[in-house]
Amino acid sequence: KANVKTGLEGLVGQIDGLVSATVRTALVGGSAADMMLDTVFTDEAALQGYKNNPKHLQVANTFVRPFVEQRLSADFEIQ
What we know:
Layout lengths: L1 H8 L8 E7 L11 E6 L2 H8 L2 H11 L15
Antiparallel strand pairs: 1-2
């Protein structure tokens, strides 16, 4: 979890349009997950660029995907 947190949060300032990234690992007991990534982007184009950015893929392929049993995601606009 520490590598996931360090890796994903460390992408802020390295990927255009990624405003913030917070990996939450202290979830309340009974939660359906053991960690959550909360990101903010300047716009939807920045989100789409992040998904295939080599720096993001490096972190995801090294520290996330090999250890993930199930992944859920939701993208939404803040009004």
